[in-house]
Beta-hexosaminidase
Amino acid sequence: MQVVWVLVFLTISTLVEGSTNDTIVYLWPLPKSVSYGSQSLSLSKSFKFSTDGGKYLDSSGILKDGFLRMFDDITLQHNMVGGNFKNGSYILEGVRVTISSTEEKLNYGTDESYKLSVPQSTGAPVYGHIEANTVFGALHGLQTFSQLCQFNPETRVIDIQNAPWVISDEPRFAYRGLLIDTSRHYQPLSMIKKTIDAMAYTKLNVLHWHIVDTQSFPLEIPSYPKLWNGAYSVSERYTMADALEIVQYAEKQGVNVLAEVDVPGHAMSWGVGYPELWPAHNCKQPLDVSKEFTFQVIDGILSDFSKVFKFKMVHLGGDEVHMGCWNKTHIKKWLKKKHMNTSDAYQYFILRAQDIAIKHGYEIINWEEPFNNFGSKLNPKTIVQNWMTGGVAKKAVKKGFRCILSKQESWYLDHLDITWEQFYLFEPLKGIKNTTHQKLIIGGEVCMWGETVDASDIEQTIWPRAAAAAERMWMPYVKHSGRLKFDVEKRLDHFRCLLNQRGVAAAPLFGSGRDAPLDPGSCYMQ
Ligand SMILES: *[C@@H]1O[C@H](CO)[C@@H](O)[C@H](O)[C@H]1NC(C)=O
Ligand SMILES: *[C@@H]1O[C@H](CO)[C@@H](O)[C@H](O)[C@H]1NC(C)=O
Ligand SMILES: *[C@@H]1O[C@H](CO)[C@@H](O)[C@H](O)[C@H]1NC(C)=O
Ligand SMILES: *[C@@H]1O[C@H](CO)[C@@H](O)[C@H](O)[C@H]1NC(C)=O
Ligand SMILES: *[C@@H]1O[C@H](CO)[C@@H](O)[C@H](O)[C@H]1NC(C)=O
């Protein structure tokens, strides 16, 4: 992996005529391999994205929509009033896309690789080319292409510097997630969509939707229509049709939606509509383990989920279960009858919920606590999400479980004191040497817990720090050095400004969390 990186930099410095040590490829995340030259091209007035052979039919319009979005991402609302672009300059007439499969269903493991080339011109107009195995790889290629483009205010055309470009790219990890939490604060649909847009810019591919929690239950569940009585207000709700709209919107951008229903803790809001889910009126969580009704409700939720959330996995939470209410209420008697203590009941609950999810065709993700407490009992299809304890990922993969890294001291976005560098430097495979075990680390996820974010500040809390982690999960591993840090910081500065230009409220790199700029100055110097 390190060899590839060295290759990238060697190629850059040897290919660029008169290159200085300050030569930086302004791409984020950095592709697996890049080479470029020194010619400047301008996009033709009649510049077009088009398909060129291949098997893909675009019956869902994924590529067509991608092309349309690309124009906005490239022009950045500048007015292209340029004159005769063909006069005396090198012209890029368009980008042709070749996709070798008809596949248009996105899921875990979808091929996301692509190759992008922008040739040199000898005077005649030329075409760029994207080749990919799936439309989702092609979308990544388009994103990379859009970052090569820059508006030239003097000529009023879009330029591409440093042609010819040859880029060959694929992700390092198959699972590259961002969690949003719509229970602690409701997020309007428009904000969820904006988050998805920015995920596509950074090549993140799983939106982990932590939909419900203790504080509120905003989602409609047709099987149990009183559950969303636990929403904060009438206007802070999502219909199932809204959820489907989000899933489809995300899919069109190559982003999967992982739905979470966190049980048996973090579920107090369920009882607003169905108080029988509480152990008692004065002791409201975890969910009542003793009632069949509890599992019927979970079954109903997952049955409704399975019609809308087609991602292979569902998240069943399982974290921070404080079982005091199972000891004090009517449940105490039930435990005695069943010869269980509270720990047994916790295990019983998690395993039953897992069985229900499997029945609905899902694989399961749980936060790490079930693994820590009764790892050997978990369904082998379980994926362990390590957020808390050091060494858990290593133990989990050793036992053959797949694992996702979200360590709170590095990848929790609600921890405002974690800097972008710390996000960047966190390494999911740290301490895991065995290659069989490494393959079970399927990726990572940054988590935007919602206690202090609503639609007024979520964007600047997520970005640009989530983008730092996105590059870590995308590009080949590279050991950090002072020289690299300079490049990385410059590139991320540049990317942060691009996010701003595209309407994403990404915060300055300076300081931590979501700080505002301190003084007047260029976007690139904050
Ligand atoms: C690039 O860095 C090397 C080693 O630090 C130095 O010898 C060389 O002069 C530098 N080249 C330029 C163009 O700055
Ligand atoms: C085209 O280029 C020539 C030579 O550079 C220049 O003299 C002429 O004014 C240009 N024409 C237009 C329409 O820009
Ligand atoms: C439940 O009660 C038993 C017996 O009093 C005690 O050992 C156990 O720690 C209690 N568990 C919880 C979760 O409170
Ligand atoms: C609960 O019971 C199991 C056996 O069923 C035992 O292994 C475990 O230590 C007990 N846990 C507690 C907290 O008493
Ligand atoms: C790596 O792990 C696998 C599976 O646990 C084991 O069979 C293999 O011996 C390990 N390899 C090394 C070099 O330790």
